[in-house]
Amino acid sequence: xxRLWGLFQRAQQLSPRSSQTVYQRVEGxxxxxxxxxxxxxxxxxxxxxxxxxxxxxxxxxxxxRPRQPNLxxxxxxxxxxxxxxxxxxLLIFTGAFLLGYVAFRGSCQACxxxxxxxxxxxNYEPDLDFHQGRLYWSDLQAMFLQFLGEGRLEDTIRQxxxxxxxxxxxxxxxxxxxxxxxxxxxxxxxxxxxxHYVGLQFPDPAHPNTLHWVDEAxxxxxxxxxxxxxxxxxxSAIGNVTGELVYAHYxxxxxxxxxxxxxxxxxxxxxxxxxxxxxxxxxxxxTSPRTHPSQxxxxxxxxxxxxxxxxxxxxxWQGSLLGSPYHLGPGxxxxxxxxxxxxxxxxxxxxxxxEGRSEPxxxxxxxxxxxxxxxxxxxxxxxxxxxxxxVRTFSSMVSNGFRPRxxxxxxxxxGGDFGSVGSTEWLEGYxxxxxxxxxxxxxxxxxxxxxxxFHAKTSPLxxxxxxxxxxxxxxxxxxxxxxxxxxxxxxxxxxxxxIRPLPMDSSAYSFTAFVGVPAVEFSFMExxxxxxxxxxxxxxxxxxxxxxxxxxxxxxxxxAQLAGQLLIRLSHDRLLPLDFGRYGDVVLRHIGNLNEFSGxxxxxxxxxxxxxxxxxxxxxxxxxxxxxxxxxxERDERLTRMYNVRIxxxxxxxxxxxxxxxxxxxxHIFMGRGDHTLGALLDHLRLLRSNSSGTPGATSSTGFQxxxxxxxxxxxxxxxxxxxNALSGDVWNIDxxx
Length: 738
Fold this sequence. Notes:
Helices cover 40% and strands 16% of the residues. It has 738 residues and is α/β, with parallel strands linked by helices. Strands 5, 11, 12, 13, 14, 15, 16, 17 and 18 form a 9-stranded mixed β-sheet that branches. The chain has a 5-stranded mixed β-sheet with strand order 7-6-10-8-9, with no helix packed on it. A two-stranded antiparallel sheet has the order 1-2.
């Protein structure tokens, strides 16, 4: 090597002149091209030395043409050394390239693990637009907060709560026109309304619902005056029922079980239940066929005035209607008559869209319920006000140069108080394509029910992103703290404090459990009690303002900041910030519950091994995708889109393809309802401990059934294995054993 270097130096010394070619990037019309400049090694040189092609020749045969004169010694040496010099240069270049590549990958902030662990750096770069320049997270955040601060959330909440907006009413029709006009004035690419005719249930003025006394002989006595005759529960069974009155708290399965444990049998009796915690549909389903519990709600004060007999209700069941404690019953016999009628009613959903520049066919969806039976300040006025404010804010950002990578779809839902009818109708209409289009759904319903605690009811895919955004939003009632700092001050395990499963009565639930789109619903709540006026005519702006002690504007602003910054990340990040590895942890947590019954199953010759194997395949597939993304070329748009498509469909992979949507609409194996779910499998396994005989072969219609267990296990395993295979990518990349 030293000999080669010496020959090279000697050749340079003997050369009469030298030159080098320098390339520089040209801006302007020829941007992206390289322009060649010549730099002389010696001032005043007029000509340049050029490299000529080299030709290797063997010995010339006799009789050939005369040989050329001998080259000067330095030239001959240069010819002999040239191949070695070329090889040496290649080795140096290759080593430098590899070193630079490794260093670059280690310092890149917009690639690699940022897909799974969201960067907290204020200079985090959510998207690299190589044609329009760099847009940093801090710039977008500052722009968003600047325009959001110009709104008047409180006034919109107050004004909306004062308007009549029962689904199908004239007041709702007027509000629909006003909101569509408000969206049309903003800088949106599309604004439209879709109308659905649905069967909604209303009280029959000619035949009102009634509640009567019944004496010991079974004779119907005088009618009890209802506190509010207009209050009713939609979808109640039409007819009448007679029975003794029993207080059942919220009507949950655990409440009914607690009643039985205290010696009060709810079967064949009228149940008095409280509003809240679970939906009206769940209360009705879980207490049927005893009665529809919510029909007794208008008479709650009169019912409690009867001083129910029986055991005193537990402390957590006590309320504030009377000075004396609540009793469980049974109480007097009553006759409930329900005469609601069903009518075809038009409902209108309102849409506004900002088209994305790179992936316009992928939507980030945000919605809020618009209708309400009463004032609905907390139920829907807050969400509607925040939705309109976000539309205005993002419209202002678009006017100032912002353009999201993916489309933003803003929706105002109708028919929410009838069981999210508006959103469900839309989902049913696009069931076969929405999982290919919708990235995430963000619900603004029930967003402000207090200000002490913050909950995010969500899919596991969004947990890491929510953690990152919480660190960017100031707490509305703890000065100098972010929401994340407020949460971890109470519980260092922030997700245990914040993350909750999606409730069935939320519009977000159907997006995930029915369609397979990850969703989230934010809620600020009181620490010691639930908001007492939800679903009642007392849900007024004044009562909500009083519960929050004047902090309603600040809390609503915090929700708007949370939702808005989440939208920016989801619509603008080059790679979708969805944590697809989280479901591996979810399965592991559930497997811990399954392991409790491994001994019982082994005694029957059964095993859960296939579930364990499918879980392992999913974890390996997630890690493989993470490594693929980390090692990929960041500027490759085709690869980026392919990865985003695989990431955004993860939720859909957990919808069981082995059950019918008509029979089991909520097909999600973790959050759905039906025998195909992991929850149903666990409930079935618990029957192993309740069989009276305790023998391996013992089964009954209400006990553990081996054939049912095998079917449940197969449905669960096939879906989980299918999710692992789908996450792995193309079929030729899948190496799992079936």
